């Protein structure tokens, strides 16, 4: 006799695949029939026409709602043109690359690539931060065709002078609308106690942004999670310490101050 649970799971997966396929077809037809295609770069238009993985990242993030997904993609391609994502100058971001403010390195325990942000190296007025963040995020996303990524925010030796809410707003907005379904988790290492109020303000901002009032913040225990985003489009934000980070990242990829080899 067939296992009813396995059969049910198989039917659910088949139904999900059919829904995604239909949504993909409808979304692509709408994009190509509309003037939106004339606003895209040649590379973006090629991806919209032929690369399902890119459309899939948006569809998954918005529960396969074609209308909502279309609106988000329209905003995304306009932003990509305005931001000149494909033409970010290495020379322009070299000072931040040299200071390793943002860089890709290693894998977590789920074999996801890690995007590191060394907040202590950020200086207010660093105009290239948005560019260097997008440079690495774009490079990973396009080279791996949307494979999962985690962000590790190293707050060692960070003080209020390093806290610029505009960069946090930019990062989280970009992850939500321009690179959806890519980042699985955000690990916040050793957030100073004095910054707890700042985290509450930040999560409160995103509760308002999402029209929600259920954002929670916890300060004790290993599994400290800022529950700012709860749907598949948004990563969970975990506060980790030297003792708990090994639950996420192997020590061979960690610097010495995090308990690395």
UniProtKB/TrEMBL annotation:
Residues 141-261 form the CRAL-TRIO domain. It comes from the Eukaryota. It holds the Pfam family CRAL_TRIO. One of its GO terms (cellular component) is endoplasmic reticulum-endosome membrane contact site. InterPro entries: CRAL-TRIO_dom, CRAL-TRIO_dom_sf, CRAL/TRIO_N_dom_sf, ER-organelle_contact. Coiled coil: none annotated. This is CRAL-TRIO domain-containing protein.
